[in-house]
Amino acid sequence: MSVRSGFVFGVRPSLVRIEVRCYGEVAAAVGDHAQTLSLADDATVGDARAALSIATESFSGGLVVLVNGSHAAADAALSDGDTLALSQSPMRE
């Protein structure tokens, strides 16, 4: 094992596994209603959306984002075992 610039080589980074549930137009855009993502242990909701290639601007009215049933912002941290739910906001402009 070697260390360079604060990184330890030969050691796997910690990952969190989250369940993603997509509804309506979001499911159509992602191509699936449910999937599991493995992300870095410091991942946020924004990181998960990026991994799924989901931009808020893609949906008129924006997105409803829930983590474990509670509304969450893009900078909300994710933990191992969390469930991220994404759907188009019913409040269209």
Protein architecture, described:
The protein is an alpha+beta fold and 93 residues long. It contains two helices and seven strands; from the N terminus they run βββαβαβββ. It has helices at residues 24-30, 45-51, and strands spanning 2-4, 7-9, 15-22, 34-40, 63-67, 70-71, 83-88. The strands form two sheets. The protein has a five-stranded mixed beta sheet. Strand 5 and strand 6 form a beta hairpin. The longest helix is centred in the N-terminal third of the chain and has 7 residues, at 24-30. 15% of the residues are buried. It holds the Pfam family ThiS. This is MoaD/ThiS family protein.
Helix/strand layout:
Elements lengths: L1 E3 L2 E3 L5 E8 L1 H7 L3 E7 L4 H7 L11 E5 L2 E2 L11 E6 L5
Parallel strand pairs: 3-7
Antiparallel strand pairs: 1-2, 3-4, 5-6, 5-7
Characteristics of this structure?
single chain, 93 residues, alpha+beta, Ubiquitin-like (UB roll), two-stranded antiparallel ribbon, 2 helices, globular, MoaD/ThiS family protein, ThiS/MoaD-like, Mopterin_synth/thiamin_S_b, Beta-grasp_dom_sf
Describe the structure concisely.
This protein is of the alpha+beta class.
Neighbour order of strands in the largest sheet:
4-3-7-5-6
**How many helical stretches?**
2
The helix/strand class is alpha+beta
Distance from first to last alpha carbon? 55 Å
Series of H and E elements: EEEHEHEEE
Q: Which bin fits the share of residues in helices? A: 10-25%
Query: In percent terms, what proportion of residues is strand?
Result: 35-45%
Molecular shape: globular
CATH class: Alpha Beta
Main sheet: strands, sense, barrel = 5 strands, mixed
By CATH, the architecture is named Roll
Please name the CATH topology: Ubiquitin-like (UB roll)
CATH superfamily: Beta-grasp domain
Mean pLDDT: 84
Contiguous runs where pLDDT drops below 50 for at least 5 residues: 1-6
Task: Please provide the count of β strands.
Answer: 7
List the domain count as a whole number: 1
Mind telling me the C-alpha Rg?
15 Å
InterPro entries: Beta-grasp_dom_sf, Mopterin_synth/thiamin_S_b, ThiS/MoaD-like
Protein name: MoaD/ThiS family protein
Organism: Haloplanus rubicundus
